[in-house]
Amino acid sequence: MADIVEVDVATGKQVIRPLNAPEQAQRDADIAAAKQREADNAAKPDPLVELLTAIDSASTVPALKTALRTHLPRAFGAPS
Amino acid sequence: MADSKLADLTEDTAPLKDDWVYKVINAGTSGSDRKVKNARMGGWAVIAETVLGATATSVSFTSIPATYRSLKVVAQGRISRSAARDPVMIRFNNDSSAIYYDEQLIALNTSLSGAGAAAATSGNAGRFAAATAPASAIGLLELVVPNYAGTTFHKGWTSTSYDAQSTAAGGQDLVIIGGLWASTSAINRVDLLPSVGPDFEIGSTFTLYGLHGA
Questions:
Q1: A17 in contact with B at a CB cutoff of 8 Å?
Q2: pLDDT at B19
Q3: Which pLDDT does position B34 carry in this prediction?
Q4: Which domain holds residue A56?
Q5: Quick check: A78 contacting B, CB < 8 Å?
Q6: For the ranges A64-78, B45-59, B136-150, B186-200, which has the lowest average pLDDT?
Q7: Residue-by-residue DSSP string for B12-74
Q8: Domain B43-212: which CATH class?
């Protein structure tokens, strides 16, 4: 049973009670969203690894330039 | 508070309060014989605190008065998630609409990384150690919300958090967070909840402070 601890600052009273149905639904949605967010982040390749892989794969100077232009900004923190 | 000379302070016979400073000008024997001059001290005062005697899926401070300058949450504890750590999330006024934004700077051993969230339904407050962390290892956080009772601007917070995932070198996180609740409503309720949890563990401690001003 999931319980919430409520501290009423005005009265100083502390109540421990089960979540009601809307609160439980919100909690379930929160947890599902958190798990999805973590899965999305885990699926993102490391920008630095992507950069190094692209450099290793470039066999010509133009290909190297393309690799750097494509991956360098994100490796240095630019938003993807 | 503004600087005041004791001679400028108001005269009072009211019962003494623990967050005021007094100068006794007539000790008297009892009651209204006692006269003092007083001024409220600045600084943080404990508004409320809870130490969990049982696991809980969230901790909620309600009916927070608008009488302070800023709010601060100091917390220490663990989360039941089967992982080394779990984020602690914050929600204001029980508002779960997607208007929370935050940015995090995370240090783990020699690695620094960043993370951000936009249009989320709660904000990151910090991290607690979780079930696979060493026994009794904890996470802690200190989170400040300036001008929480204002209604002109959106509300924001900054937080510093630490958690021990292991006792090995580099097994601890330090996280610095800035966040935004894109609402102009005065804050009267603060909820803290594990990201996945589901529960805060027994012994977890949550203290709400208010900053006095003049």
A1: no
A2: 60
A3: 61
A4: 45-80
A5: no
A6: A64-78
A7: E-SPP-TTEEEEEEE--SSGGG-EEEEEE--EEEEEEEEE-SS-BSEEEEES--S-SSEEEEE
A8: mainly beta
